[in-house]
Each structure stands twice: as C-alpha cells, then as structure tokens.
Write a structure and sequence with these properties.
Layout lengths: L1 H16 L11 H5 L2 H22 L3 H13 L1 E4 L5 H16 L7 E3 L10 E6 L9 H10 L4 H10 L8 E9 L1 E2 L5 E2 L6 E6 L10 E5 L5 H18 L12 E2 L6 H6 L2 E5 L6 E5 L4 E3 L2 E2 L4 E8 L4 H9 L1
Antiparallel strand pairs: 1-11, 2-3, 3-4, 4-14, 5-13, 6-9, 7-11, 7-14, 8-10, 8-12
Helix pairs in contact: 3-8, 3-10, 5-6
The structure holds fe (ii) ion.
The site of fe (ii) ion has 4 residues, from loops.
C-alpha cells in the first residue's frame, strides 16, 4: 500500500516537474524505465545550443573564438578579470559586508562542512538583486556587474537569458585542512557557476577542478544519467532525499573510465583577480586544502530555470 502511494505520488511529481531543471532525476519507477531523462537531456542540449548560437552570432570575431571554445570545453578562464587595485577594493567591500552581515541582510551557512570539522567555512549569500538593498550591497552588485562579460558568460554556459535577480552571489571564506570533494555533476541540464578569486589560489588551497568537455558528450551523459537515476531510485526508496542532497558522483559510475578518457582535467590554481565560469553539468570538484591559506572568493550561481525559460531564451 505504502509502495503504491509512493509510486503514484512520484508519478505525479515527475509529470508536473518534467520541465523543471531543479527536478534532478525521475522519482517514479515507471519514468525510470521510460526514456524520461533522455528526453529532458536532448531537449536541454537542443535549446542550449540554439541560445549559444544566437549569442555567438552577435559577437565580435575575437570574442566568437573565446565563446566557441567555451561551448566545446565547458569552462572560460579569465585571468586579470579585475585588476589588483579593483580586487583590493572588492576585498574591502566584502569584508565590511561580512563583518556586519545581519545589517546587510546576508544569509550565512557553512558550505556543507561537517559539524565536527576543525576547519572554518563560511558562505555569505547576498540578498536577491530585486530586494531592497543596503548601499554597500548595491555597491558590490554594481562593481561586479560593471564588467558585462560576467553575466554574458553565465548566460552563455547556462543557456538562459539570465537577469541579475536570477543569479545568486555569495562571498566565501574557507580556512583549514580540507579533503578534496569527489568528482560530481550538479545537474543533468546545462547550468553555470562563476568563481572570482580574491586571493591567489595555489595547488594546496582548494583550487576548483573541472573535467573539460565532460559537459558536452551527449551519449555518455545519457548513459551516465540513466545509471545515476536508477542508483538514486534504489538508494532513496523512502524519497527522503531531494534536490541538492542528490549528487551524481563519478566514482560510483560504470562509465567513469570513459568519461575520464574523453575529457581533460584542469586544476584552477590562479592568481587573485581570476574569474572562472563553467558549466557544472560537467564533472568538477573542489581540490584539497592543506590549511595554510584562507580561500577567499566570490561565487555566482545561475538559476537552473525550466525548459520553457530555455525555449524563450533560444527563440525570442
Ligand atoms: Fe558542484
């Protein structure tokens, strides 16, 4: 009886949530058997490519090359996105926001660090751009968006014509010994994140790591997502986990070897002022930290949107 209830509930949820990119995997047994996820992947690839083509057509020939490369590799590396002087100014603004985060309506969490950890990890999320903002928060928003390429790169890799209120920004400060994350993909659909380094990030200070091209292999993505979806279905029979608790980990995949062979790892140890934008449907992880230096940066997360929003972005 309980089983039947779960199946009916999951079936309905899958039907309603089909267009949403926040619904990571089908929850019902029936849609795990049908090509539910395959169809969503194919629609997402089609719409994202259409939108990317539209953006590329409007670019200068020099920029065209950069974005064509980004489309193929899934990552854009911008050294000196902000100058040293600008980074120093940004650090002052960020520190004053963090010092008085309640006054500026920033919300805080520990970035998923375990309670017993001896390391310190703080993520401060800015209030949404549409909210009433304090002058300091507005100053930070204006500073970050003064370079139009930031939003353009996020739009391009996510396949969505994002407005500023559809991008979540956080300031993160992490210090202490940390193991490397596991290689994982955030979502079956193309989606984007950016990281702006406010300190130099060395090899031993949790550099962002990415498997270039792992976002773009259609056949492998379909096989891997199908496998991931059935793993989650089996491990999550009581439906207690959803959304961000569900990860597609490369270690658990039978296609691990092929995915590694057809991609190229990059470890982003770069100086302050570097901006990295990437498609986190590709496999990525946070590197190991030996705890000597604090990692101080600003992160940008695009809204994942729905198929309808991607359709609108691609065709209108
Ligand atoms: Fe991730």
């Amino acid at each position: 009886m309980k089983k039947l209830f779960y199946e009916s509930y999951s079936f309905l949820k899958d039907v309603i949530m089909f267009p949403s990119n926040y619904h990571k995997v089908p929850a019902s047994t029936i849609f795990n058997k049908l090509p539910y996820q395959n169809l969503r992947i194919l629609i997402d690839i089609y719409l994202t490519k259409k939108f990317q083509k539209k953006i590329i057509n409007g670019l200068s020939s020099e920029k065209k090359l950069l974005f064509e490369n980004a489309r193929d590799e899934g990552i854009i590396l911008n050294l000196n996105f902000f100058s040293n002087d600008e980074i120093e100014k940004l650090k002052i603004i960020c520190n004053s926001l963090v010092d008085d985060y309640k006054h500026h309506n920033l919300t805080i969490d520990n970035g998923g660090l375990g309670k017993d950890s001896e390391s310190s990890s703080k993520y401060y999320y800015l209030p949404n751009y549409k909210n009433k903002l304090t002058d300091k928060v507005s100053e930070l928003y204006d500073f970050l968006y003064s370079n139009k390429d930031l939003i353009l790169q996020l739009k391009f890799l996510s396949g969505l014509d994002l407005k500023k209120d559809k991008i979540s920004i956080h300031i993160s400060k992490v210090k202490g010994k940390l193991l490397s994350d596991e290689w994982h993909s955030d979502c079956f659909s193309h989606t984007a994140k950016s990281f702006l380094y406010l300190h130099n990030v060395e090899k031993n200070n949790s550099p962002f790591c990415f498997l270039k091209k792992s976002h773009a292999n259609k056949n492998l993505k379909i096989l891997n997502e199908k496998e991931n979806s059935s793993n989650i279905l089996n491990a999550n029979k009581d439906k207690s986990k959803s959304g961000n608790q569900i990860w597609n980990k490369l270690e658990e995949s039978n296609f691990k070897k092929e995915i590694f062979e057809r991609s190229e790892p990059i470890e982003c140890s770069y100086p302050k002022g570097t901006l990295i934008t990437c498609d986190t449907s590709g496999f990525h992880k946070k590197g190991y930290s030996d705890g000597t230096e604090e990692r101080f940066m600003i992160g940008f997360v695009s809204n994942r949107g729905t198929m309808f929003e991607k359709f609108k972005s691609a065709f209108f």
